[in-house]
Amino acid sequence: VGVAAGRREQRVGALRGRSRYSARLRARPDGLSFGGFWSPWSAAGSADTPAGGH
Predict the structure, then answer these.
(1) SS3 state at 4
(2) Pair 28, 38: CB distance under 8 Å
(3) pTM of the entire predicted model
């Protein structure tokens, strides 16, 4: 999932209820204010969805 420059969050839809999801993140330089290569992957984080989903 791509996140627009300057944003600090991204909503993800169509998740199943009563499920655990995990994600890892990395950053890509924009080439203007920061150059270089992709960052290393972060450690995994997880979250549980409530019974109704969302």
Answers:
(1) coil
(2) yes
(3) 0.66
